[in-house]
Design a protein that fits this description.
about 350 residues; alpha/beta; Jelly Rolls; Rossmann fold; 2 domains; five-stranded parallel beta sheet
């Protein structure tokens, strides 16, 4: 009986593959891949190759993760498949599942034009092939596929049925939201790529997103700021405090903002306080750390405003994870609930900024 079942599975899989038409994503492009067509070591790297000579080695290595990248397409296929090859064989982390680290995440627009989750993947090897969703009800609709958060992608193909219509949608030309931050911006510890708060906000605000979060290395580096000035952003969102102490905030914040402002005189800039560790209510040392960081950032903000820097905004961090201690995996990094709370806190001020743009 087991032999018969295995034979049936293999035959069914083979038939499905014969009826699948594959499309290489590089033929139309992904959103979240900033710096235009500048030369890259790998097509899905976040930074152009020239950054290797200026940013730290850690930032360069992390920039090869595909965090924030998203491919859009239209199809009426009854099934959607994917093939993707990963840069690293390390598929997951102790506090973050492979589905978020190395997986793909599928969304679809409903009849009202709203993005709704459709399917995720469970990667278990470096070269993956999976059916994202099958049995899809008839109709031509738009889909989005988010790429892995903490792994790189060497190649990605989307498969649809032979008899279906398919259009790869070019990256949108609207100015993107540019998030510069830490492991939290990078996506730790979302269960799937679409649950990181930059991705949530991209859907809610219907805007392209460029995610330059670097785990442990979002430190307001001037070299990263210089790269950021090349992007004509809707908003620069600076969320680096979890990787800094008060002394470094005081040292680096004002020079970074002045660098951005000199290059982009009217681009809004949002300074974000760090979230509080969800167990800081029990650990006074953590409360002291956050208080000092917040004070240093607020002082820098006020000094910048007094010096005439315009289009500068400020977001307090106390509510980013919520106040019930349930928003984190490890006190520091958000779980999916924590990321939803991040998005809820960011959304009102970003809407205000974009409305005034």
């Amino acid at each position: 009986m087991r032999v018969i079942i295995l034979f049936w599975v293999l035959v069914t899989s083979a038939v499905a593959q014969e009826n699948t038409r594959w499309h290489d994503v590089t033929q139309w492009g992904v959103e979240g891949r900033g710096w235009g067509d500048q030369e890259r070591c790998r097509w899905y790297d976040r930074f152009p190759e020239k950054a290797k000579e200026t940013v730290t080695q850690s930032v360069w290595n992390l920039s090869r993760h595909s965090a924030g990248m998203m491919v859009r397409l239209k199809t009426d296929s009854s099934a959607i498949h994917a093939k993707w090859n990963l840069l690293s064989p390390n598929l997951g982390m102790p506090h973050m599942p492979p589905s978020g680290v190395s997986g793909l995440d599928l969304y679809a627009r409903d009849a009202d034009g709203q993005w709704r989750w459709a399917a995720a993947t469970r990667p278990n090897k470096q070269e993956m092939q999976a059916t994202l969703l099958k049995g899809i009800m008839p109709g031509l609709r738009e889909y989005a596929v988010y790429l892995p958060l903490y792994n790189g992608v060497d190649s990605l193909e989307i498969g649809v049925t032979d008899d279906s219509r398919f259009t790869g949608l070019l990256p949108r030309k609207e100015k993107p939201l540019v998030f510069y931050g830490t492991s939290i911006t990078h996506g730790a510890c979302a269960s799937r790529p679409g649950m990181a708060h930059p991705a949530i906000l991209g859907r809610r605000l219907d805007r392209p997103v460029i995610n330059i979060g670097f785990s442990g290395n979002g430190r307001m580096h001037r070299e990263v700021g210089e790269l950021m000035t090349e992007i004509d952003a809707a908003v620069y969102i600076i969320d680096c405090l979890p990787n800094l102490n008060a002394e470094k905030v005081t040292e680096r914040c004002i020079p970074l903002i002045k660098l951005l402002r000199q290059a982009r005189p009217e681009t809004p800039i949002l300074l974000v306080e760090d979230r509080r560790f969800t167990n800081s209510w029990l650990v006074p040392e953590k409360t002291v750390f956050h208080d000092a960081n917040h004070h240093a950032l607020k002082q820098a903000f006020e000094d910048l405003k007094r010096s005439g820097v315009n289009y500068l905004y400020y977001l307090e961090g106390n509510s980013l994870m919520g106040t019930d201690s349930e928003g984190s995996t490890d006190a520091s990094h958000p779980n999916d609930l924590g990321f939803m709370r991040h998005a809820n806190t960011f959304e009102p001020i970003l809407r205000k900024i974009l409305k005034a743009e």
